[in-house]
Amino acid sequence: MGTPPRVRQRRAVANDERILDVAVELLATEGWLNFLPSRVGAEAGLSRQSVLRRFPDRGALATAIWQHRLSPDLSRILAELLSAAGLLADESGSGSAPSATSGTPEALVSALQPLLNVAVPMRSAAELLVIAHFEPALHEAITGTLGAQVTAWCTPGRHGPGPVLAAQRAYLLEQGLGLLIAGRRPGIADFDALSAATQLMQALNSPTEPVNLPRTPAKHLDERTVPFDTGDPIRDLLLQAALDGVSEHGFDGVSVQSIADAAGYSEGTLWNRWPSKLTLFEEATERHLALGLKANHDWLQNVTSQYGQGVAEAVHAREVQRPTRTHLRALNLEQARLAWHHPELSEGIELQLAQFVSGYQVAHPEWTVAEATTHLHFEWAFGFGAVVLPLLHREAWRLPYDVITTPMSRSASEPSA
């Protein structure tokens, strides 16, 4: 006798669930490079063919775990974050404007916990939010689920929120999504988030009226050719080719051969200068960030001197989120993703961030070390959130961010109570 149909059906459903559970775990711990049907099958106690019959490639498997495991959870977490701040009357995103007392710092800290202390499912969600920049099918799945919800929350209109509320929601979502991307740093459990949450709630409760933002262009963000100037012209070309390749295909999707070809040199020429693709990209990233930070600092200082810090930060958000700058955003996120899986990259980031903590304490002597470290973490994470949001809401760059960046800049310059 064969296996009864109902027994076979229950077994098939159980195997489906097992595959999805194992896939989430594997993606969180080993990343996209090792997210393979053969690995998932082995971890699930099933054959590779059994997995492939259900999901023909890893893109299909990634789409399945996003739709059935990750998107519902992340959507709920973000809705709870908006609600904790008093920015969401209901999950449709069309609720009335919040009252100034409807959110509290304590509630905000509680809602931020899943994004500050990132568990396995949300680690997988973060991985896919980055990889979606290089995988069209996954990109479509994300924009059609969480993206549709975020767009509804943050699109001003007659049947949606007003411009101020839409911008406030977008800003808080950027903070939350940024914390998700930055959530693998060591020591996060010891951070004191109440001070940062208090500052954020003060700004949310004191929005300013939107102003016409200056049209100041951020031409340095369009510079695809980086002036590396290492003293070795061949090295400069290979570094540039590495950045270009990763921004278009992701680190795992670009080969050493394609990088060498794009630079116009042999693969051997590349190997003579770097022992691995990772060390090549690490150098390219360090040099690119150093040059980019200086150019960005100079640009922000110029805009701030003319219009004030709050307006400058709003203009910067607009410029970073423009639809024409997808490659810039993809590169920024891929640099963060690689640090999750390569301790040597993560250690370098930690050393850089540690140097800023003392500066925060000089500016705010009332802060403890934990508070200063947390404020730095929030600020650093926000930069990642600003480049994630356009994946979910293509028109985010049009929002009047000054309604929140202006009060945020004022509260940041004043000692906390």
TrEMBL record:
Keywords: DNA-binding, Transcription, Transcription regulation
Transmembrane segment boundaries: none
Domain HTH tetR-type: 13-73, 232-292
Molecular functions (GO terms): DNA-binding transcription factor activity; transcription cis-regulatory region binding
Pfam families: TetR_N (PF00440)
InterPro entries, per the entry: Homeodomain-like_sf, HTH-type_TetR-like_transc_reg, HTH_TetR
SUPFAM superfamilies listed in its UniProt record: Homeodomain-like
Name used for this protein in its record: Unannotated protein
Organism encoding this protein: freshwater metagenome
Organism taxonomic ancestry: unclassified sequences, metagenomes, ecological metagenomes
